[in-house]
Amino acid sequence: MKVILIGFMGAGKTTVGQLLAKKTNLAFLDTDQLVSQRTGQTPGEIFATVGELGFRQLEQTILQENLVKQGVMATGGGIIELAANRQLLKNSTVPVIYLSGSFGQTVERLVKDNSRPIVRNKSLLELAELWEQRLDKYAEIATETIYTDNKTAEQVAEEVSQYMKAYHDETIENR
Ligand SMILES: Nc1ncnc2c1ncn2[C@@H]1O[C@H](COP(=O)(O)OP(=O)(O)OP(=O)(O)O)[C@@H](O)[C@H]1O
Ligand SMILES: O=C(O)C1=C[C@@H](O)[C@@H](O)[C@H](O)C1
Ligand SMILES: [Mg+2]
């Protein structure tokens, strides 16, 4: 991968990733979409049939298989739940961008879309608890954090692309 986007559900990883892929002329890969392609089921259906752990195992296989490919990867919001995935991301040389923002603006995006099983099954308080539990895990593996509040997805994609250019130039200089 050339870049991997991580962050909570609704951070904009898929939306920004698609815009970024266009901008940089790279392939777009999304772990949620790849899991769905492999199983023929949505994340919601997979959660309902094999549970969250079953989904996480599929997600891990997809992450491992696709890390070596060239492109922009958007991950699922829970990719950081498994220690093995955090290790895979930490050990890779790919820049990992954490799309971060306030809980308020993130929830505003999520309530407009009822497709996420984790959001559907949780109260706002439980979602806030999950948010708290996950923050350190995103920060721990990120090579860069980009704050998304009050920015359009296009603006965020532009910031990530600037970061990729700087990262690439620095890597060449250090060779
Ligand atoms: N910067 C932004 N400003 C406003 N709305 C946004 C922004 N980024 C994304 N959105 C909207 O928020 C919603 C969630 O975005 P998206 O599906 O890209 O999130 P995600 O991080 O991929 O979530 P998940 O972890 O569930 O895959 C979409 O409706 C999208 O259009
Ligand atoms: O944050 C999560 O746990 C999830 C996020 C989505 O991207 C999907 O991967 C699924 O709905 C679970
Ligand atoms: Mg997504």
From TrEMBL:
Q: Name a single GO biological process.
A: amino acid biosynthetic process
Q: Which reaction(s) does its UniProt entry say it catalyses?
A: shikimate + ATP = 3-phosphoshikimate + ADP + H(+)
Task: Kindly report the protein's main subcellular placement as a broad class.
Answer: cytoplasm
Q: What is its EC number?
A: 2.7.1.71
> Which top-rank group of organisms is this from?
Bacteria
Any one GO CC term of the record = cytosol
What are the protein's GO molecular function terms? Answer: ATP binding; magnesium ion binding; shikimate kinase activity
State how the cofactor is bound: Binds 1 Mg(2+) ion per subunit.
Q: Which Pfam families match?
A: SKI
Q: Where does ATP bind?
A: 10-15, 116
Q: Which InterPro entries match?
A: P-loop_NTPase (IPR027417), Shikimate/glucono_kinase (IPR031322), Shikimate_kinase/TSH1 (IPR000623), Shikimate_kinase_CS (IPR023000)
The coenzyme or cofactor needed here is: Mg(2+)
Entry keyword set: Amino-acid biosynthesis, Aromatic amino acid biosynthesis, ATP-binding, Cytoplasm, Kinase, Magnesium, Metal-binding, Nucleotide-binding, Transferase
Places the protein is found: Cytoplasm
- Top enzyme class, one word, equals transferase
- Entry's family note: Belongs to the shikimate kinase family.
> Tell me, how does this one assemble?
Monomer.
Function field: Catalyzes the specific phosphorylation of the 3-hydroxyl group of shikimic acid using ATP as a cosubstrate.
**Under what name is this protein listed?**
Shikimate kinase
State the species of origin: Weissella paramesenteroides ATCC 33313
